[in-house]
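Internal ticket #5521
Category: modeling
Description: The requester needs a full-assembly model to guide mutagenesis choices. All entity lines are attached below as received. Residue total reported by intake: 559.
Assigned to: D.W.
Attached entities:
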Amino acid sequence: SLKNNLQKAFKFFRSKGRLSEQDIKEGLREIRVALLEADVNYKIVKEVIKRVEEQARSQKVIESLTPAEQIITILYNELVAILGDAVPLNIVPNETNLIMLVGLQGNGKTTTAAKLAYFLKNQGKKALLIPFDFKRPAAKEQLVALAEKNGLEVFRDTLIEPVPTLEKALSYMQKNGIQIAIIDTAGRKEIDEEMMRELSDVYAKFKFSDVLFVSDSTIGQGALKVAKGFSEIVDLTGGIFTKFDSSAKGGAILSFRYVTGKPIKFVGTGEKITDLEVFYPDRVISRIVG
Amino acid sequence: RKILKRKTDSTIDDIEEFLIENNFGVEFTEHFLEELKENRVKDPVGFLRKKIEDILDSVDTSLSLDGRPIVFLFVGTNGSGKTTSIAKVAYFFRNQGKKVLLIAGDTFRAAAIEQLTKWADKLNVPIVKQQLGSDPASVVFDGLESALKKKVDVVLIDSAGRVETKKNLMNELSKLQRVIEKKIGRSANEVLLVLDAYTGQNAVEQVEVFTQAVNVTGIVLTKLDGSSSGGIIVPIIERYKIPVKFIGVGEGIGDLKLFDKEFYINQLM
Ligand SMILES: Nc1nc2c(ncn2[C@@H]2O[C@H](COP(=O)(O)OP(=O)(O)OP(=O)(O)O)[C@@H](O)[C@H]2O)c(=O)[nH]1
Ligand SMILES: Nc1nc2c(ncn2[C@@H]2O[C@H](COP(=O)(O)OP(=O)(O)OP(=O)(O)O)[C@@H](O)[C@H]2O)c(=O)[nH]1
Ligand SMILES: [Mg+2]
Ligand SMILES: [Mg+2]
C-alpha cells in the first residue's frame, strides 16, 4: 500500500543517518513507487521526484544530522505546493449565482448537486437544483427524489433542451427571489465532440459563478487527460472529488490540480446527503502519502 | 492515451511510461521490465503484446448459459455502469429470441428502480420490483419466484452500487448470493463485477473485496469508449484469473460487446 511504501522510504532514510547519493536514489525510488500506486500521474510523479531530488542533493540536506526529516519535509512541501488550499464557492450576495457541475459518466454529479444544495441550506442559503441531464433514463427523477427527501428546491418544469431550460429556470429564480442554482449536467466524455460542444454552448450563453469538475477519486492515470480536456472547453473554477470513502488513495486529485491549476473545493465521503466535506490539503496528502 | 511505437523505436522508458499510464501498475511494470532484461528481448513491444495476449487467453470468456432460467447477478462499485449494462445484456439476449426478466435489486439509491424500469419499458421486458427501501433479498426472491413461474429464459439482477470499504454492504451481497442459490437450487450462472475502465489501482482492491463477498465469475468492463484503455484488467486477470465477459462501449442499448481479445488489444496498443 502507499502508506507502507512511504513508511518504508522513511524508515530507510532514518536508518541511514548521513545520506549518500545512493541512499537518496534508493529512498526516492520508494517514494516514486508509492505515488504511482496512489494513482498520481506518471508525468507528475517524475516532476515531483525531480524537484525533491534537486533539493535533497543540496549541501544542507547531505550535511544535516536529520536528512530523513529534511527529505520528508521537502516531499511534503512539494505536495502542499501543488495542492494549494481549499477555496470556497464563489457565491456573491444579491447576484444570480449559477453553479454548474460537469464530469464523466457516473462520477457523482447528481448526488453531489443535492449535497451542495443541502450544504448551502445549512448555511442559510437557498439553492435551486436544476436537472440538466436530458439523456440518462430517470436522471431528472433522481434529482427530484433527492430534493424531496431532503427538503431542497428543484426546478421541475424542464423542457428537453439545455438553453431554453436554463432561461426558464433563471426567470423562475428571479420571480421567486432565489439567488443560487446548481445545474446537474449529463455525464460526458472529454473526447465526445458533440457533448463538449453542447457544454461550451451553454457556457458561452450564461454567466456562471462556479463550474466544478466532479470526479470519482478511484480514477487512475487517465485523470490527467480528462481534467485537461474539460478545462480546455470551459473555464473550471474548481473540482470536487467523490467516493473518498472508498480505499482509493486519490492521486487523481493531484493530477487535476497540477494540470488545471484549479482548487479542489469539496470531497464526497459517502452516499448520504451530509457526506460532503470541505477540502483539506493535509488530509488528502496524508491519504496519498500516508 | 499513451501509444507505443513499433519494435525497436520504443525504449525501456517508453514501455514503462506506457504500462504505468495505462494503469498496469508498478508491480506488473517492474516485473515485465525485469523479464525484458532477462530475456534480452529485441522486440519489446511485440513481447509485451504477446504477454498480454497470453494473459487474456489464460481465462475462458464464454458465458455460462446452462439451466433455466439463466441467472446473472450484477455487482460493483457506485456509478460503474451496472444498471446500463443490464439493459444492454437484456437487449443482447432478447435479440436471440430469449425471454428476459429484470430484477430491480437496487432498493436503495434515489430513482434506481425508475431508471431500470425505463430500460425495461424501452426493451419491452418484464421487471420485478418493490418500493424503495425494501429488502433487496426479498425483491430477488420474489423476482426469481416470478421467473420460475413464467418459465423465463434469462434473469438479470441489479444491485446497489457499494464501495469495498463497507463491510455490511459486502455482507448484504453475500446474502443476495445465498438467496439466489436457495431459490434456484444452484449458483447463479454469472456473478458479474462491473468495472469502470477509467479506474486506477483501486480496481484491484475492488476485485479483492468483492470476490471475498461473492463468487465473481466475470467482469463487465465499461466505458471503454472513453479515453481510458482499461489496462488495469491485465494485472487483474493475471492475478485473479477472472475473465472479462462483456465490454461496454457507450451509453446506448447496443453498446455492448462480448469480450473480444483483438478489439481490446488494438484499442490498448
Ligand atoms: N460511496 C460513495 N458513493 C457516491 C459518492 N458520490 C456519489 N456516489 C454514488 O455514485 C453513484 C453515481 O452517482 P451519480 O450522482 O448518479 O453520478 P453522476 O455523475 O450524476 O452520473 P451520470 O449522471 O450518469 O453521469 C451513485 O450510486 C451515488 O450514490 C461518494 O462520495 N461516495
Ligand atoms: N460512455 C459510457 N458510459 C457508460 C457506459 N456504461 C455506463 N455508462 C454511463 O455511466 C453512468 C452510470 O451508469 P449506471 O448504469 O447508472 O451505473 P451503476 O453502476 O448502475 O450506478 P449505481 O447504481 O449508482 O451504482 C450512466 O451515465 C451511464 O450511461 C459505457 O460503456 N460507456
Ligand atoms: Mg447524474
Ligand atoms: Mg445502478
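Resolution: model delivered.
Comment from assignee: The mean pLDDT of chain B is 96.
Ticket closed.
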